[in-house]
Amino acid sequence: MESVYRVTEVIGVSTESWEAAARTAVETAAKSVRDLRIAEVLRKDVTIENGAITNYRVRLAISFKYEPSE
Fold it and tell me: Using CB atoms within 10 A as the burial measure, which of 25, 29, 51, 52 is most buried?
């Protein structure tokens, strides 16, 4: 059986860590997209204020099974 997957980008933000930012992005996407399969980290960056890191940001490419409308 062959399958087709769609890929879209999401950005997660956390004050804690890049891992927490990625978790937030995946958990939020999972609420509205079914059958998530893979998340690939495309980019990581931080927000800095007054010389201190205030936010960790992760851009993810997430893939999910494509189900065309019938």
Answer: 25
Least Cα distance to 62 among 16, 4, 18, 11 occurs for 11
Question: Would 40 be classed as within a structural domain?
Answer: yes
3-state DSSP assignment of residue 61: strand
pLDDT of 67 higher than 80:
no
Q: Supply the CATH number for residue 26's domain.
A: 3.30.1660.10
pTM (two decimals): 0.82
Contact status, residue 64 vs residue 37, Cβ threshold 8 Å: yes
- Note the pLDDT of residue 4: 84
Tell me the helices (H) and strands (E) count for the chain, helix number first: 1, 3
Q: What is the pLDDT of residue 35?
A: 83
Within 8 A by CB and 6+ apart from 66, the residues are: 3, 4, 5, 6
